[in-house]
TrEMBL record:
Domain (Endoribonuclease YicC-like C-terminal): residue spans on this chain: 174-293
Protein name per its UniProtKB record: Protein YicC
Pfam family, one: YicC-like_N
GO MF annotations in UniProt: hydrolase activity; RNA endonuclease activity
Cofactor or coenzyme needed: a divalent metal cation
Residue span(s) of domain Endoribonuclease YicC-like N-terminal: 2-156
Record bears the keyword Nuclease: yes
The entry's keywords: Endonuclease, Hydrolase, Nuclease
Family label: Belongs to the YicC/YloC family.
Residues in coiled coil: none
Length: 293
């Protein structure tokens, strides 16, 4: 089953006197790009979190957010950089003396220096029970996200199949009109040959050259066959599971080339209109394929 790259999963559970909340969002991206926003108390969990995402997702931008709401925070610890304070005071005294400044150097002066005092949680290692709970919630949220991606992928598949049918109908229309193109090309060739024959002499080499050129320009059989082959490959790939987005994108480029060649070879207003319709449908498919994993 194909997957979209857009999804959302959320899980929460009680933790002490609060809750631990896990939210995971994903959007389309060329590769797998994981961003984690995790509290300091769970900082050691980041690597395991990314590994869990990699097991479930292969492409897309995935944002994982873990939040602890209402729970008692760990005890804080204040650290004073005494050596820096001494250097700071010495530097200020020297500056005051050098510039003959007035004023007192006291504790209020040092209190405004952020680098002197840092506040952190007391060391003690991560809470194993909290880590275990976080791992369980992330796995559950990822399953929700994958389920949403699969549902949207199924919807994308149905829409794309409808577009492929529209291109196949347009291709059949061009195939039906192709013999008329050959007849029209033959009429033009006949008129040109008659014009050459009215001259004093016929340049047979030039005559053969004109015939080959017109035949090549008006024959769209090869393009129609290749377009049909690409459509079949596209359907077969769409029925597969796994990472298929890049393959589908490549097949779209190939179909676009064949349709462009059809338009340039078939010098016919009716076929030109059909080619424009095919290009419009291909663009719709391209927009949808950009969101397939």
């Amino acid at each position: 089953m194909i997957r979209s790259m857009t999804g959302y999963g959320r899980q929460e559970a009680a933790w002490k006197d609060g809750t631990l909340v896990v939210e995971i969002r994903s959007v389309n991206h060329r590769f797998l790009d994981i961003a984690c926003r995790i509290p300091k108390s769970l900082s050691s969990f980041e690597e395991a979190c990314k590994e869990a995402v990699q097991r479930h997702c292969h492409r897309g931008r995935v944002d994982v957010t873990l939040t602890i709401n209402g729970a008692r925070q760990g005890r804080k610890q204040i650290t004073l950089d005494r050596d820096l304070a001494v250097q700071y005071c010495g530097a200020l005294r020297d500056l005051k003396k050098q510039l003959r400044l007035s004023g007192r150097l006291d504790i209020n002066t040092l209190a405004g220096v952020r680098e002197l005092v840092t506040v952190s949680e007391e060391a003690g290692g991560p809470d194993k029970a909290l880590l275990k709970l976080a791992g369980r919630l992330v796995e559950a949220a990822l399953k929700e996200l994958v389920l949403m991606r699969e549902r949207e992928g199924q919807a994308l598949s149905l829409a794309i199949l409808g577009h492929l049918d529209a291109i196949e109908r347009a291709r059949s229309t061009v195939a039906e009109q192709a013999p008329r193109l050959v007849e029209a090309a033959f009429s033009k060739l006949k008129a040109r040959v008659e014009g050459l024959l009215q001259g004093p002499a016929v340049d047979e080499a030039r005559l053969h050259q004109e015939i080959a050129l017109l035949a090549d320009r008006s024959d769209v059989t090869e393009e129609l066959v290749r377009l049909g082959s690409h459509l079949q490959q596209f359907r077969e790939t769409l029925a597969k599971s796994g990472t298929i987005g890049k393959t589908l994108d490549f097949l779209l480029q190939e179909m676009g080339r064949e349709v462009n060649t059809l338009g340039s070879k078939a010098n016919d207003a009716g076929i030109a209109s059909t080619v424009v319709q095919m290009k419009t449908v291909l663009e719709k498919i391209r927009e949808q394929v950009q969101n397939i994993e």
